[in-house]
Design a protein that fits this description.
Low-confidence stretches: 13-68, 429-436
Radius of gyration: 29 Å
Largest sheet: 10 strands, antiparallel
Distance between the termini: 62 Å
Shape: globular
Number of strands: 35
């Protein structure tokens, strides 16, 4: 809500609106009762709008534009769409959703609006309201909509009445008159809002692509089997959103930009957006950018990503990865359409189907913890109906190419800052959640168990908090599920109860859609899988900002929809005891340092002061335990190239890898960790393989293989389960073969 003074619902003494034909307050508001009035001309309207066999609407008695004497009148326009008006320093953007045409967009029976305060040449957002399930009455000449509104601010004028003249298809739509009243009947402000658009919201969409990538155009839904109740039609991305009531206007210039053969990182994507998104500004606006990139670096199976989730103006940019989704056959085109619509859906602040309850405020989940949703926001391979078989084939056989009703309510009627790009953070607000969100289930027949643990029972203030997740089977006959165990993949959630008593949800700095079926079989031969996650910093900043005791609990959403909850993990963050402790904590806990640690290093100019702070730790506090984490971020970044686009979009500037500096830093990380004074074992595994790659880049395959052999020896002890040792050995052998193929020549 804006800080502007006043209240746009109260009205002012010097404003007089045009009188209405019926200005009386409805009787049901006199006594506080709410009654529903039947539509008075239902039969006439049905005769006027007769569906044809093809789903269109025919006018009874013909379709002449100007009916002569005795001829049937053209059909009424549906009472729906966007209206806009102003009064006494405020503008109202009104959305009416109570009517449609046969075969047209679904009626959600809502009225909503956004207020903006105006002063001179400036305009600022004030607040929003929504009327759920209003009463609607039709007469021959007017539609009257009444209900009680929910606002983003406190006001006494909670009653809303909207009166709209009924117009024929050959007439210009009439203006909506909106009245705000204080119970039982005190009139407040009145707004006369001319008709603007049949769409509830309009968004400008700019799309660029890398060299060699062919952007998606359209898909004929009738080219493959689909539900009988879903009409065959040609869907483009704008058409898919139009069916949800959202106008997606193709804007800007479609640039072709230089490609990166090695894939794109999160920070590189954000840099590409700033350089190429011609409509981009760090301010809330109905504008979004999509890049058709080649591939996502560092992880297979990522079809797309809404990467703009790390700053104060989020959800302005997303990307799809052409190398994984390309194809000219109907299956590939269908999947491309879903990926584009899905990633843009995240930009509108839509979560995955199984994550709705993690929003602020939480929304109800669909069946099977959301896996039963037939939605653009579900993964086909995750689809699990309440009855029958699930999986991708079942999803596509039942999917009508639409958002769910709740998702459409958000798109059409969600409060302004919750939907517009660049406003509220992804998932909205500060992600407060109920402490009981991850309560243990009353029954658990999943055959799976989740454990959350840490190598450290206590952390120094400012020390990066890393946890290990373990998923194991309790049924040694075997269970199959997905192996997306890292919280960045968004199928695992971690709740953090802070010393203050506030419970928050860890939200990854950058979310990614690992939209690929990766099934793992857990049985006697391989009873568990593991993952390590740095959770100290995310989209809400630092989660461990104060000394004290923290309680953590994780939840894993299995392939069948089961929610597996871990026991509570208690961690202590110790108070600093010296000035050096305070100084080191300050060097570690800046916002930029948190981002660098979460990204595992970055050359981004916007993070320069964070890199300077980490370098100071390495140079002035080389023997302190925090230096290991600074070396980790620096070393991984040195070992890897960093890409940025030139201002004219024609050249890709690549800072080549610096293997010598990478070896210098990563060797120290490995040495300290093998002595139990560094990173956890899962991170050690990663660092050792990246160190081997740095040696191979220098042409020293012998030292690369020696590094991998040492990794295996570290794990080949009685402290580790045999299947863990075997998994590490397989990873080492695979890495040797890959490095030999890439650098052996």
């Amino acid at each position: 809500m804006s800080t502007a003074s006043g209240d746009p619902t109260t009205g002012t003494a010097d404003f007089s609106a045009p009188p209405l034909a019926d200005a009386s307050v409805p009787e049901e508001w006199d006594d506080g009762q709410d009654t529903i009035q039947d539509r008075s001309d239902t039969e006439a309207s049905a005769a006027e709008q007769r569906p044809t066999a093809g789903g269109s609407t025919a006018q009874a008695g013909g379709s002449t534009a100007h009916a002569g004497p005795g001829a049937a009148l053209p059909a009424h326009r549906p009472t729906r769409g966007r209206y806009g008006g102003s009064s006494s320093g405020y503008e109202l953007d009104l959305r009416v959703d109570v009517d449609s045409v046969p075969g047209g967009p679904k009626v959600l029976r809502k009225v909503s609006g956004d207020f903006f305060s105006t002063s001179g040449g400036t305009k600022a957002y004030f607040g929003s309201f929504i009327v759920d399930a209003p009463t609607v009455s039709w007469s021959a000449t007017h539609v009257v909509i009444r209900g009680v509104a929910t606002y983003t601010w406190q006001t006494a004028f909670v009653l809303v009445r909207v009166t709209i003249p009924r117009s024929r298809a050959n007439q210009r739509p009439g203006a909506a008159t909106v009245e705000f009243l204080r119970p039982p009947s005190q009139p407040g402000a009145t707004y006369v809002c001319p008709y603007v658009s049949p769409y509830f919201r309009t968004v400008e969409w700019e799309q660029d692509s890398v060299t060699g990538a062919v952007p998606f155009l359209s898909y004929d839904t009738g080219s493959l089997p689909q539900p009988a109740n879903s009409p065959a039609r040609t869907l483009t991305v704008p058409r898919a959103y139009a069916e949800a009531g959202i106008e997606l206007l193709v804007s800007g210039t479609a640039n072709t930009i230089a490609n990166s053969q090695s894939g794109w990182t999160n920070t590189e994507l954000h840099g590409a957006m700033e350089a190429n998104f011609s409509l981009w500004r760090n301010t809330p606006q109905w504008k979004v950018w999509l890049l058709v990139a080649s591939s996502y670096e560092g992880m297979a199976g990522v079809r797309g990503i809404m990467f703009d989730a790390a700053d104060s103006f989020q959800r302005q940019g997303c990307a799809v990865f052409y190398d994984l989704i390309q194809g000219a056959d109907p299956e590939a085109q269908r999947a491309m359409l879903r990926t584009y619509v899905h990633e843009l859906g995240h930009s509108f602040n839509l979560l995955h189907s199984w994550q709705k309850n993690l929003a602020t405020p939480p929304a109800p989940l669909g069946g099977n913890n959301g896996f039963a949703d037939l939605s653009w926001m579900n993964y086909p391979q995750n689809y699990q109906p309440l009855n029958g078989n699930g999986g991708a084939a079942a999803y596509w056989g039942a999917f009508p190419f639409q958002f769910t009703d709740n998702e459409q309510i958000h798109l059409r009627h969600g409060f302004y800052r919750n939907v517009i790009m660049g406003a509220n953070a992804f998932a909205t607000g500060a992600a407060d959640i109920e402490p009981a969100l991850f309560d243990e289930p009353l029954t658990d027949e999943s055959g799976l168990r989740l454990d959350l643990r840490s190598d450290n029972a206590g952390f120094s203030f400012g020390e990066p908090v890393v946890v290990e997740l373990k998923l194991e089977t309790t049924d040694l006959r075997g269970r199959s599920t997905h192996n997306h165990l890292h919280p960045d993949d968004e199928l695992v959630s971690i709740a953090i109860r802070q010393p203050s008593g506030r419970t928050v949800l860890y939200r990854p700095l950058l979310r990614r859609c690992v939209d690929q079926d990766q099934t793992v079989r857990l049985d006697a031969g391989r009873p568990a899988i593991y993952s390590s996650a740095y959770i100290g910093y995310g989209r809400d900043g630092h989660y461990f900002q104060q000394p004290g005791t923290y309680q953590l609990r994780a939840a894993y959403l299995a392939s069948d929809g089961s929610r597996i909850v871990s026991p509570v993990l208690r961690l202590d963050v110790r108070h600093p005891v010296s000035q050096d402790d305070v100084r080191l904590a300050e060097l570690m806990m800046g916002e930029e340092q948190g981002k660098i640690l979460a990204l595992r290093g970055s050359d981004s100019p916007s993070l320069q002061s964070g890199n300077d702070a980490l370098q100071e730790i390495i140079e002035r506090h080389a023997t302190h335990p925090f230096a290991v984490y600074a070396r980790l971020a620096k070393g991984l970044n040195f070992e890897h190239e960093f890409k940025s686009l030139s201002p004219d979009k024609t050249e890709l500037t690549v800072r080549p890898p610096d293997p010598k500096s990478g070896i210098e830093q990563l060797t120290q990380v490995v040495k300290a960790s093998e002595q139990g004074k560094g990173v956890d074992n899962l991170t050690l595994n990663l660092v050792s393989r990246r160190l081997a790659r740095a040696y191979a880049r220098q042409g020293d395959l012998e030292e690369a293989n020696s590094t991998l052999d040492q990794l295996v020896r570290h794990f080949d002890t009685p402290a580790f389960k045999p299947y863990v040792v075997e998994a590490v050995r397989d990873q080492a052998d695979t890495t040797k073969a890959r490095l030999s193929a890439e650098f052996g020549g």
